[in-house]
């Protein structure tokens, strides 16, 4: 039961990802061939091609990279936000792994995100392996029984066992009267903001808003009041 979980033991998070290369034309030959094979399963419209859908490559850990991980945790009555963001994926993942190893490393700690079991957690783990970073225990699922995996997912919790539908973070914020985190950009625009506008700060702000929204949704599930802005502290990176 959620009410038995110590909320100050939860690390809430969200990630932003982009294609590993700025354009389809910049893909190395080997990866271009592999993306062409992959895209055959993704194309829904005959007008589309491997090139035209390349902006979607960022959602696949094999063809993308992480540019921001925003985390949130409770310290007394305040929610503290910190972001790891960089053009250098290795450095941000090293810093994030250090946080997990240092402060979220016991069987009582949990990770929580929206659709995170399907996307965020495996994406982070895969990119850590690619970057030759040892998986922190809380991310390493190998050999663990289901009840030993310390992951929470606000989308899964909303399903109540119903596996038919995807419910977006934005829709849940609307249902619970939480300010939308999509008031500037949404996930489909991140690749353009990164590769065309080169505005990583804007992506970081968007990622932090998503992370705060995850926390507010979790509080709503508990029947608790939403956090006031005065109780949200964003770290200066």
Keywords:
alpha/beta, Nucleotidyltransferase, domain 5
Structural class, judged by helices and strands? alpha/beta
Strand residue percentage:
15-25%
CATH topology grouping: Nucleotidyltransferase, domain 5
Known CATH architecture: 2-Layer Sandwich
Number of helices: 7
Strand order of the largest sheet: 5-4-1-2-3-6
Biggest sheet statistics: 6 strands, mixed
| Domain module count | 1
Q: Tally of extended strands? A: 6
What would CATH call the homologous superfamily? Ribonuclease H-like superfamily/Ribonuclease H
Low-pLDDT runs of 5+ residues are none
Q: Separation of termini?
A: 35 Å
Along the chain, the helix and strand elements come as EHEEHEHEHHHHE
Determine the fraction of residues in helical runs and give it as a percent range.
25-40%
What is the overall shape? globular
Under CATH at level 1, the class stands as Alpha Beta
Task: Give the gist of this structure.
With 237 residues, this protein is of the alpha/beta class. The chain has one domain: Nucleotidyltransferase, domain 5 (2-Layer Sandwich).
How would you describe what is shown here?
The chain is of the alpha/beta class and 237 residues long. It contains seven helices and six strands. It has a single domain, classed as 2-Layer Sandwich (Nucleotidyltransferase, domain 5), CATH 3.30.420. The chain has a six-stranded mixed β-sheet, sandwiched between helices. The mean pLDDT is 94.
């Amino acid at each position: 039961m959620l009410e038995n979980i110590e909320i100050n033991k939860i690390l809430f998070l969200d990630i932003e990802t982009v294609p590993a290369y700025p354009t389809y034309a910049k893909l190395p030959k080997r990866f271009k061939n592999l993306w062409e094979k992959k895209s055959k399963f993704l194309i829904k419209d005959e007008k589309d091609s491997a090139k035209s859908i390349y902006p979607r490559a960022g959602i696949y850990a094999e063809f993308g990279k992480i540019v921001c991980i925003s985390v949130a945790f409770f310290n007394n009555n305040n929610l503290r936000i910190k972001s790891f963001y960089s053009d250098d994926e290795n450095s941000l993942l090293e810093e994030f792994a250090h946080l997990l190893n240092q402060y979220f490393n016991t069987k009582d700690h949990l990770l929580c995100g929206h659709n995170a079991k399907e996307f965020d957690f495996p994406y982070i783990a895969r990119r850590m392996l690619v970057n030759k970073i040892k998986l922190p225990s809380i991310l390493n699922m190998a050999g663990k029984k289901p009840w030993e995996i310390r992951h929470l997912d606000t989308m899964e919790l909303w399903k109540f066992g119903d596996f038919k539908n995807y419910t977006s973070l934005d829709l849940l914020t609307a249902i619970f009267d939480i300010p939308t985190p999509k008031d500037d950009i949404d996930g489909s625009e991140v690749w353009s903001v990164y590769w065309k506008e080169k505005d990583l700060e804007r992506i970081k702000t968007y990622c932090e808003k998503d992370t705060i929204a995850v926390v507010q949704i979790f509080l709503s599930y508990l029947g608790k009041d939403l956090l006031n802005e005065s109780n949200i502290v964003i770290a200066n990176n």
